[in-house]
Amino acid sequence: MAAFADGDSSSSSWDSDDEYQKFIQKMNPPRITIDNTSCANATIIHVDSANKYGILLEVVQVLTDLKLIVKKAYISSDGGWFMDVFNVTDQSGQKIMDESVLEGIKDCIYKSIAPGSCFLPSRRRAIVEPSSDYTLIELTGTDRPGLLSEVSAVLTNLDCNVVNAEVWTHNKRAAAVIGVTDRKSGLAILDAERLCRIKERLRYVFKGRSRDAKTTVAMGVTHTERRLHQMMLEDRDYERYDKDRANANPIPMVSVVNWLQKEYSVVTMRCKDRPKLLFDTVCTLTDMQYVVYHGSVDTEGPEAYQEYYIRHIDGSPVNSEAERKRIIQCLEAAIERRVSEGLKLELSTGDRVGLLSDVTRIFREHGLTVTRAEVATRGNKAINTFYVRDTAGSSVELKTLEAIRQEIGQTVLQVKGHPDHPKSPAQESPTRFLFSSLFRPRSL
What residues form DSSP beta bridges with 413? Predict the structure, then answer.
């Protein structure tokens, strides 16, 4: 192991909001530099800044939102300074050469971690911020076939229009963040009695035969994927494992050992690489209130390797076997939640009230269940992605797919990745990043 310098082990460095800390941050604004010459196959981003709890997650979150692929990373944040290096590519694996795009990347990172930034996470500040565009609904409970269909049908019956949503399922648990508007006005729902009715109806549906379900209604916007991780972590999905879990997907290799000489705990992870993996693991460590003092990430090839030297926010390493096991379970769950179990279906059509209810009803009537979903509205167009499988967990038959597409529309619903389904012609998509939208209220 490399000999690292000892960091400040007290929690005061993370919790303090005194004038001295603010002065240090103001006198040491972030420096973001981009190097396109040192590496032949990646753009190198250097981030230097005064250190603060959660800053690593903020930088990784920006890189993820900009759809950059992190190939390698080197993390160092001992003491009062944060120094990170990220080797990144675009989604096609190419270096980023457009100067305007590079400037946009620098600007986004700077704005996310600059002194006084409203995006820097704090344990004392909720990540939900006020908005009048829509009402935010959060749901957690037991997963079952047809759950999304039932939820969307209830919302339609209550004169709610789903404008955006994201649904995750893992280990027989389900979590959803849904943005809705009033069907008639198209605005957020403000009436307290109506919100209470919506909340109670959804809790009843999400509860099913189980006693444990949670429904929250709030005005606001949030970083949806981080919130879903938090919700499933709070729901303890990591403790509920299927008997056939090992047969579904390869189990991530996660280990936690203590390096007593330096009072660090060393977390290592090996698993199949996939998009947003770095965000998922850093998000979970941060929300479990651990600080990454040093680390390295390597995703060259099909396997990803991550190594972090961590302490709890109070400055202590892992101090019990129960804590060690919990970290391993939570990181395994964080890696697995986004692994898509099922066939990918993409829907693109004109938006209307009740569309999500109708589509998911058709899935249910043909014996399919939704394992993950991303629902978005852009202007007057609905752009939705569903991951589906049959209720027995088997592969979806081609004749079932064709019957569903016949009912929904051949050009409206596209099938991705079925071995027997003919591939659709590749569609080109713009690669320029929409930096101006990143710091507006984020859609779900």
Answer: 347
Residue 397, both tokens = 């038959």
Say if residues 308 and 285 touch (Cβ distance below 8 Å). yes
- What is the Cα–Cα distance from 290 to 284, expressed in whole angstroms? 9
Q: Which residues pair with 310 in a beta bridge?
A: 265, 292
Neighbour-count burial of 218, counting CB atoms closer than 10 A to its CB (0-12 exposed, 13-18 middle, 19+ buried): middle
379 CB burial (10 A radius; 0-12, 13-18, 19+): exposed
The whole-angstrom separation of Cα 14 and Cα 157 is 47
H helix runs in 319-427, sequence order: 321-337, 355-365, 398-408
Residue type, 86: F
| Token reading at 287 | 């929300």
pLDDT greater than 80 at residue 218: no
Tokens found for residue 437: 């939208």
Tokens of 35: 């190097």
CA–CA dist 379, 420 (Å, integer)? 34
Q: How confident is the model at residue 28 (pLDDT cuts 50, 70, 90)?
A: confident
Q: What are the tokens at 252?
A: 């991530």
Neighbours of 39 (CB within 10 A): 15
Q: What Rg do the C-alpha atoms of the chain give, in angstroms?
A: 22
Residue 231, CA distances (Å) to 50, 65, 175, 199, 238 in order: 30, 20, 7, 17, 12
How far, in Å, CA of 432 to CA of 137, rounded? 32
Q: What is the pLDDT of residues 239-266, one digit of tens each?
A: 865 554 545 567 899 999 999 888 999 9
Chain centre distance of CA 17 = 28
Mean pLDDT, to the nearest integer, of 209-215? Answer: 72
E strand intervals along 285-434: 290-298, 303-312, 343-350, 368-378, 381-390, 413-416
